[in-house]
Design brief:
alpha+beta; globular; homodimer; 8-stranded antiparallel barrel; 2 domains; Cyclophilin
Amino acid sequence: MRKFLLASVLSASFSTPLLAAEAAAPATPSGIVAAAPASEWVRIAPENLLVMDLAPDAAGKPRRVVIQLIGAPFSQDWVENIRKLAAAHWYDGIAVVRVQDNYVVQWGDPDGEDAKKAKPLPAGLAPTSQRNYSVAISSLPANSRTLPPPIQVCTGGQCPDQPALPGNLDWRPYVARNDIYAQRTTFKNGFPIGVDLDAGLAWPVHCYGYIGVGRNMSPDAGTGAELYAVIGHAPRQLDRNVAVVGRVIEGIEYLSSLPRGTDEMGFYASPSERVRIAKVRMGTAVADLPGYQYLSTESDSFAAYAAKRANRKDDFYTQPAGGADVCNVPVPIRIAK
Amino acid sequence: MRKFLLASVLSASFSTPLLAAEAAAPATPSGIVAAAPASEWVRIAPENLLVMDLAPDAAGKPRRVVIQLIGAPFSQDWVENIRKLAAAHWYDGIAVVRVQDNYVVQWGDPDGEDAKKAKPLPAGLAPTSQRNYSVAISSLPANSRTLPPPIQVCTGGQCPDQPALPGNLDWRPYVARNDIYAQRTTFKNGFPIGVDLDAGLAWPVHCYGYIGVGRNMSPDAGTGAELYAVIGHAPRQLDRNVAVVGRVIEGIEYLSSLPRGTDEMGFYASPSERVRIAKVRMGTAVADLPGYQYLSTESDSFAAYAAKRANRKDDFYTQPAGGADVCNVPVPIRIAK
């Protein structure tokens, strides 16, 4: 009798046990990740974690969403504001106000548009500017080690010559030359980035589960008080138009499976539909937090994992893709044992 | 006081009213679609619709998912099997057995792996073969009209010369040259496709909301009795490895917002978590079905819409993307008035 499977991708759902078959054969992306040595995993410091507890669900079940904030030099004005807002407990009691299918879940002050009722922001938030959606490639920190040549991912037969590249970019593990939204895409310190070599600029990109800063019309660049998480196909058109500040590393399902809003753009039509955010704290203020790690994007295992994601050929896959877009190479996350 | 918005994309949520600002200015993708003349909309015949009614939710609310089956010459063995399975009422009483975040919702016979308990398939299903995941470009039907040159979408400054292309492809509205998973991507008869000009082959691609056929390990190609819908970033690595048979055009939220499964690969750990499928019928067997239409992918409005999706510059977007991947140009769907 048929077994009817659809082979899985390794997603950020790190707590899911691997299939026995996958664990036995590191010829799959998840097998490669499972076999990575401890030295290749990087601890995510609690000071870079944002812990958001939604109000419990109808059955009283807790709903905790853990967010990894992006590191320097990307989006640091917004990230610092988010630290201040969390330290001031400003987010406590705000709500998820919008869930648009195949796009975003958004949360903020439901009364933010009403000057009389809006929740006052804490003092000392940094001014923000759309100029800082990108950073100079020259400002990126050095790699942790000298990396061998990159694994180049490009569609079969259409792979142009590899140019000389700045030494402080993680070109080793992965480089997509035929990305539609950027000259190149790669990873830096565990985050996917887009690169414009001619302009000398790099920026974090919007993938599934990534967090951005809601804002008003340009030139407003948002403060960090209103945030959204991507719950659909990567809306890469938002890259360099909004600040990306991090990604969900646990509990994305508490956002992605919320009822969709029926008003314009997926806003909840009635206040009663909103989901209350009980509290948001920095990881340093949460006692029982597990030890999260990401697989170093400079590691040999990440390089092998990215290459395998781009070229699967096994008992299930007969036609290797010959490439993978940067959002289809999710950075593996796990909880340290 | 800040208004805190994140500008919307036009998704397949055709019933959502447009924002007033968008309706007034057809300089946005959704404005272009709203202004498209009636002659550019194509009726979706009821014989190409599959109507799946999940059991009502906990509050007793109906949950109807409407699927548009893909037209010839793509995946026709599976599509014909699906018609037979629906006509035989075979799908009635099966269940959603898997919901994996950022990947798929899958439904089928929960006892399908148990030879003694599995639900017998109706007689007369066509044998299927992985050879038919792709079709010859030469077998594609002619366009409905002579189309002007294509709108080429490619990352700024890196747009190579346009080659001569077969006349029966909808090259006009959109052509992505730097897709990572195919030599080219375009649209044919309302569906996004990948193209390999050297091999002379074309195939339907996996985007958000698209329906594929679950199967066992290769060379099994599935029957159509087990199906899945994409609920995350487009898993394009599945292209040419699984049969794509259609897309959800209404009710995707009843699948995408289901609780995620906690077992391996998102399968529901307990039978009690499964969501029962009450019945599945062809559109011809459903009395109260509205008149669905899609925007012709050969139309002037679709061409303008695709170009605008690739190059937004307005009060919200200051940095046009310069391109759009084929899954980021969702084919507009509406209900005829």
